[in-house]
Amino acid sequence: MTDEPKAATGTQLLDKALDMIDLVESSGQRLTAGAIAQISGYPKPTVNRILAALVRRGFLAIDRRDQSYELGMRFTQLAATLRRSHHLVTQIEDQMISLSTRSGETVSLAVAEPGAARIVGRYHLGLEGVPGGPAGAKRPYHASAIGKALLSGMSERQAQRHIARIDFERFTPNTIAGREQLLGDLQVIRARGHALDEEEIVTGTRCVAVPIFDRNGAVTAAISLSGPIHRMTQARVVDIVAALGAIAAAARERMPVAPEDGQEAGEIACLRSGGLFHPLAMAIDNETIRVVDAGAQALRIFTTSGTLLETVELNGPFQAAALGPDGQVMIASGGNVQILSHGQAARWTEFPEDVTALSFAPDRQGYALTHHGGVHDALSGKALFKPTGRATSMTNAGGLLCLSEGHHIALYNSDGVVMRRLDFDGHAEAIAATGSHVWIANRTHLLRIEIATGKTAQVTSPERRITAIAALGTDAWLAGANFGAQLSDFGGPARNSGALYRWMADRRPK
C-alpha cells in the first residue's frame, strides 16, 4: 500500500481549508457554516470539521451572535511579524549584501516563531553556498547558530516557552542532545555575545550569529554568517563577529525611539514605519485608524495594528482637515470648506479668508477656525466667537472646543467662554483631546495634560514632526510627517519620518 492516496487526501483538505478562508475573506457578507457549505459545494460534515480546525488554530473566528465566521487574529499576528521582519530586512539589506560580497559567504536574517527560527532574509554573493534553504525556511532553535542567538537574547520566561516545544532532533553527532545542554550553551552565548553552530545541523559547515535588539533591549531578530568549516577559521570568526555586531548595532539605531529614562510613564509603539507625508487629521475607533494626508491628498485607513486597508483620494490641495463620526471628512482649501460623507454629495461653505483649522464635535457639528475671524459653524459659515488669543490649531474635548493659543491651551464652551486654560512650554504643532486629557505635539516632546488638574506627562517625540494626533481613552495615536524631515540626516529620529505610532499611557516596557 502506498502513501499517495493519503497525501492526495491531505492536499484536498488543505485546498478546501484555503477555499473556505478565501470565501470568508472575499464574500462581503457574514457566512455561517451552512452558507459556506452551500456556496463551496463541500459536504457539511467536512465543512464543519475544517472550520473547527481553523477556529482552533486562530485562522478563523466565530461570532456567537449569528454563528458567522470571520478572519481570526492569527492573520493579524502573521501580518505584524511580516511587517516587522520586512522592514528590518530593508533597513540592513545593503549591509548584509556587502558582508556577503566581502566574505564570499552566506548571510541570513531570522525572527523568532513558535517552534523554530524563520529565515526572512538570505544573501549569498560568493561562488558557492552552504545548505540551509532560502528565505522563508525554518531553522531549529537547538541546532542552528541563528536559533540559539535568538534564544540567548530572550527573557528567561520567553526562552523557556520556545525550548519547551523543541523535540531535540539529532542532525549530526554534534547536535545538542537535550534541554540542559542547550541551557548551558545559552549561558556561554550570553557571556561572549555570539552563537556558534559547530557542524550541528550540517556536517562540514560552521555558522556564527548575533542577536539584534531594539532600543528597549528586546530581541527582534538574529543575523548570521555561515560557510564551509575549512574557511571559517577561529581567526576569521573573530572578524565575522565584529562585522555582524556592527550590522546589529546599526539596526538597533534605526528602530523607533523609546521614551527616555526619568520621564513620565508611557510607551510609544511604532505601528507602521513610513508612508505618511503630511498628516493633518486622525480619528481612531475600535477597528480602524483614519488619517487625512495632505501630502498624498488622500484618506488612509489602517487597522489598529497599522496595516493599510484602503486609500481614498481627496480633492487637493488643502491646508486643514478634520474627521468626524460615521466616516465624515472635512477639508479646507483656502477659504473653501468641503464636507464629505459616505453616500452623500459634498457640501461646501465659503469663507472670506483662509481657514486654518477644522474640528468635529461628538454631535457631528463642524467648526472652522479662520485666519483672523475666529471660530465659525463650518456648514453655515455663521461666526460663533473670537478666541482671546491667536489660535493655530483646534480640536474637541468632550463638547468643549480646545484651541492652542501660543503657550497655552484654552477650552471654550459654545458661547465662547473660556472654561479652562492649560499652560505648557513650546508650540503645539498638533493637538487632540478627550473629556479628561489633552495631547500636544511640539516637535521635541509629546505632552499629555490632565484637564482637571493640569498634571502633565511627557515623553520624547519619536519624530521631529508629529502633525496629527487622535485620542481614545488614555492612549493616543500619532502620525508623523515625511514633509519637512531632514532626509539627508541618517542619524536619530529622522530615520522614522512619516510613521504611525501609539502612545500607551502608564505602561513602560518591562
Structural account:
The longest helix is centred in the first third of the chain and has 31 residues, at 73-103. The chain is an alpha+beta fold. The chain has 3 domains: 4-71, Arc Repressor Mutant, subunit A, CATH 1.10.10; 77-253, Beta-Lactamase; 270-505, TolB, C-terminal domain (Neuraminidase, 6 Propeller). The protein is built from 8 helices and 33 strands. Helix 5 packs across helix 7 (179-192). The protein is globular and about 85 Å long. 40% of the residues are buried. The strands form 8 sheets. It has a 6-stranded antiparallel sheet. The protein has a 4-stranded antiparallel sheet with strand order 10-33-32-31, with no helix packed on it.
Essential attributes:
510 residues; alpha+beta; Arc Repressor Mutant, subunit A; Beta-Lactamase; Neuraminidase; 3 domains; six-stranded antiparallel sheet; four-stranded antiparallel sheet; 8 helices; 25% helix; globular; disordered N terminus
